[in-house]
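Sanity check. The docking grid for pyridoxal-5'-phosphate depends on where the pocket ends up, so I'm generating a full predicted complex first rather than guessing from homology. Inputs follow.
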Amino acid sequence: MIVDRVRAVRERISRAAQRAGRRPEDVTLVAVSKTFPAEAMREAYAAGLREFGENKVQEGERKAAELRDLREGADLRLHLIGHLQSNKAKKAAACFDVVHSVDSAELAQKLSRAAVDAGRVLQVLVQVDLAHEPTKHGAGEDALYPLLEALRGLPGLRSSGLMVLPPFDLEPEAVRPWFRRLRELREAATARGLLLEGAELSMGMSHDFEIAIEEGATLVRVGTALFGERRQAA
Ligand SMILES: *Cc1c(COP(=O)(O)O)cnc(C)c1O
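Predicted complex below; grid placement will be based on this.
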C-alpha cells in the first residue's frame, strides 16, 4: 500500500532531519512517479503527497491532463526532474510547476518566454554538474554564477535553488561529498546575492535521501521507496 510507504518514508525523513538538527517540515518530499500510472499518483495524493516528479516532458503532459482536477482544482504540483531539451520548453512550461534541470541561459530564456506566453511563472532550479560524467547534464561549476545572474532578469522564472544528480553509488555514504559540495555552492551563491538565504537544494533519491537531508536537502526526489520498483526503463 502506498499509504504505508508514504508513512515509512516520512518517518525516515523526520529521523534524518532530527539527526541533523533540522525541522522535518523543512524537507519536501517529491514523489517521483515516472513510469507509474496517474492512479498511483491519486493514491499518493490521498496519502498526503502534493509534489510529484517526472523525468519526461511527454509523460508529464499526459499526467497533467489526467490529473487536471487535482492540479487546477486542488494543489497537486508537477516537477520536471529530468533533462529538458530547449525545443520542448513550450510544452514543459505548460504542464510543470517546478523545473529542476535548467542548465543553460539559452534554455532558461526559452522557458521564460514560454512561461510568460502561458501567463505562468515557473519555479526553477539550476542543475549543477559536479562529476563531469559524459552522460549527465547540468551546468559546470564555472558556469553557475553567470547562469544564476541571467535567471534574475527573466520574468517567467523564479530562480529558487540548485539540484544535483551525483554518480550512482550503491554505498550511500559515497555520495555525501557531492551533497556537501552543492550546499557549499548554495552558500557561495547566496553570499554573492544570486540566491536567497536558504534556497532549495534538490538532492537525494530512495537509497541516499537520508544522507542528503543530513547535508541540507530541502527537496528529496523519491520514487522506488514510495511506488516500488519500476518495470519499464525510466
Ligand atoms: C528516477 C529519479 C529519481 C528517483 O529515483 P529512486 O531511486 O526511484 O528514488 C530521482 N531523481 C531523478 C533525477 C530521477 O530521474
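Relevant for the grid: The longest strand covers residues 122-129.
Also worth noting: Residues 36 and 149 are 37 Å apart (CA to CA).
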